[in-house]
Amino acid sequence: VYLTYRAWTGVDPEQRRDEQTKRRERERRKREQQFTPNQEGKSSPRRRRQDARGRNNNVRRQGGAYQSFASTSSSSSYQGDYRNPQQASREAKALISSIIARMPGGGGPAFVPDSLQTALEIARVQNRALFVYLHAPAGDASAGFAEEILGSNGVAQFLTSNFVCWAGSLRDQGVAEGYLLAKEMGEEKLSESLVAVIGVVSSPGDKSKNEGHKATSSHSVVKVVAKTHALFRNSSLFLQWALLAQDHWNEIVAKRKSERARRTIVSEQNSEYEQALMQDEQKLSQEREEEQRRLEAERAAVEEKKLEEAEEKRRIDLRDRLPEEPAVGAKGVANIRFLFPDGTTRVNRRFDVDEAAKVMFQFVESHLIRDREDEKLLPMDRLRLVTRFPRKVLPRLPESTLREIGVSRDTVLVVEEIFTMK
Asked: What is the pLDDT, as a whole number, of residue 329?
């Protein structure tokens, strides 16, 4: 990192540090005349410089951690001043211009010259973390950090290549997006500049859950990846901090991708399970309906069989109740041959021509004449008696005698089935 720093600067660090120290001292004296510190910052310039060096040494002795991940598990809803975005943009442009003006050659990171909300939206679209520099005008190390560290080519190129960069002020004036952001991150001491890396974990209108938080319809939920005061002694220590923050952000992104993939798989599995469950329910419903139809058909068949057995019994009883057959050769007796619908069954019986015609019809009905298709008993209303020569259908007149309907001698009667149009 040191060789990279030397390659980008092209100037001896000791000589440059001396020149910047003199210039920083002149600017510090000028700021002391224009700025009145708050109660927390009431101390002599010498005492403040000693405190800053002591804090920096303590951080360096802690292994370069810089309290960088003290708030990495926190997420908060960014609630900037949306009422005046034009003023927030103007303030950001003015601050960035003043910071860049102090840097050698007007270099430095490529800060977004717009409001914090715009920078967050750019970071969300590019899926990159947002590097935030919150400038404290009265801070002892602010000018040196901006000139020596942020102004170095190596740091500027690293930040521009790996982050979306934005700068704000810690003064509570105007829209004060930087001041509000520092308060959102839980910072109380605002006398020294802050650097932070934050990431957008949910955008406005996003209804999906991210890290256990839900975005509102107008605010972005941001996650503090790393933050610390800008008290780095050189660019190498700052680059170490930035690399740690970048690695941690990459871990967060990878975890989010894995979580989204897991949710997608779970959603697909749930959808497949629900679809299979619905198909099983439909299949079970069809089986129940088929079983119900089968049971109903069986009950209908049993009932029909009972009715048919009862009908057979009735016809057999009817045959037994018929009058006795007249003797052979008796006077007024006609021998009648019946030809049944199957074409093979022939039955002969003698009848008194003066007895009721219904006796002959009851005799025909007492025989179990079945349908040739379904083998069911044919009711008498589907049968008729017909003479051959000449062809004549005998009328069913229960009160008439055989003689009256045209049967007065031996004859052949055909039992025909009456077919109906279905």
From this structure: 82
- For residue 148, what are its two tokens? 């020596």
Cα 199 to Cα 224: distance, rounded to the nearest angstrom: 7
pLDDT digits (tens, 9 = 90+) for 257-296: 899 899 999 999 999 999 999 999 999 999 999 999 999 9
Distance CA 89, CA 66 (A): 31
State how far the Cα of 229 lies from the Cα of 321, in Å rounded to an integer. 122
DSSP element (H, E) containing 195: strand 194-202
Inform me whether the pLDDT recorded for 197 exceeds 70. Answer: yes
Q: Classify strands 130-135 and 333-339 as parallel, antiparallel or unpaired.
A: unpaired
Taken as a whole, the chain contains a residue count of: 422
The CA-CA-CA angle for residues 138, 98, 144, to 5°, reads 50
Tokens of 39: 């109660």
The CA-based diameter of the chain, rounded to the nearest angstrom, is 161
- 229's CB contacts (< 8 A; 6+ apart) are 55, 189, 192, 193, 194, 195
| Of 236 and 380, more confident | 236
How far is residue 13 CA from its own chain's centroid? Answer: 58
- What three-state secondary structure class fits 234? coil
Place 25 in a pLDDT band, splitting at 50, 70 and 90: confident
Q: What are the contacts of 55-64 at 24+ separation with CB within 8 A?
A: 55/229, 55/231, 56/141, 56/231, 56/232, 56/233, 59/228, 59/231, 60/233, 60/237, 64/237, 64/240, 64/241
